[in-house]
Amino acid sequence: MNRLYCAILVLAVAELTTLCTADGVCSRICTTVVGTLSDQNDDSTSEVSCPVGEEMTDCTSFSPGSSERDGELFTHAGNGIRVCVARNGRGGEGVRAYARCCNWPRMTCEVVNGNRSSSPDDAGSMAICPAQKNCLDVFPTGCSIRSPWKGLTGVKPFMPNYCHGYNELVDRGLWAAAVCCSAPSLNCNTKSALSGSAKGDKATIGCGPDWILTGCSVRNPRHTTLGAYIDDDDNCVAVNGADGKAIWAIAVCCKDTY
Ligand SMILES: *[C@@H]1O[C@H](CO)[C@@H](O)[C@H](O)[C@H]1NC(C)=O
């Protein structure tokens, strides 16, 4: 895309955003929509969507009772609206889908699916965001991971452009996905916290002043988890799935300068 085109577009965007701020209708607010607990059958799902007009910046899954999750994925409903789907694994005790939904001026998001990782020895699945969209910087606001064969050990956001899904326990296939969002002057970073080492221990991390939490992931090598979710106080919470090792909660925190 040529530079003149970008200069014109960015000016137009700046003007629109200023208007919208003066009207007071452009506050950036993200909330979490929580699905109902799935039943305990293999592959049963919990599904949620965002309110119309809001962007889904992340989709995570959490199972209160077991590590047997197949993870989370994105689909579309008949009306084209994005759906966050959490899937129960064989022998699991039910999962919930958690969608992060943002009302953010001029934000647009797309889901990028990563390549297949089919053995613990390979480099894992990477979902890579484009650097720019319509002259605006793009960031991975949330990372998801799924495998129909469970054994998930997590997915990690790397700024400025990708999600890495790790494969230590799945020998047939897993996939990472990134939600890649752009908005005027968007900037995103990660923050993380470590849990205790007992099963059920939580790692909790918030974003701090001026930053808004858009996504939440869990990660620890060779160690299963109950998943991750964003709670009512805007914290990213990851829950340990087995005894003996701590796990990380990783929050994606974003802001713009308007
Ligand atoms: C997935 O893609 C990334 C980036 O192109 C690459 O480095 C990695 O090796 C790939 N993973 C597999 C399992 O092929």
What does this structure look like?
The chain has 258 residues and is mainly β. It has a single domain, classed as Jelly Rolls, CATH 2.60.120.690. It is 8% helix and 47% strand. It has one helix and 19 strands. A four-stranded antiparallel β-sheet has the order 7-13-10-9, with no helix packed on it. A three-stranded antiparallel β-sheet has the order 1-6-3, with no helix packed on it. A hairpin with a 2-residue loop joins strand 9 and strand 10. The radius of gyration is 18 Å and the shape is globular. The protein starts with a helix and ends with a strand. The model has no long low-confidence stretch (mean pLDDT 91). The structure holds 2-acetamido-2-deoxy-beta-D-glucopyranose. The site of 2-acetamido-2-deoxy-beta-D-glucopyranose (NAG) has 5 residues, from loops.
List keywords for this structure.
single chain, 258 residues, mainly beta, Jelly Rolls, 4-stranded antiparallel sheet, 3-stranded antiparallel sheet, globular, binds 2-acetamido-2-deoxy-beta-D-glucopyranose
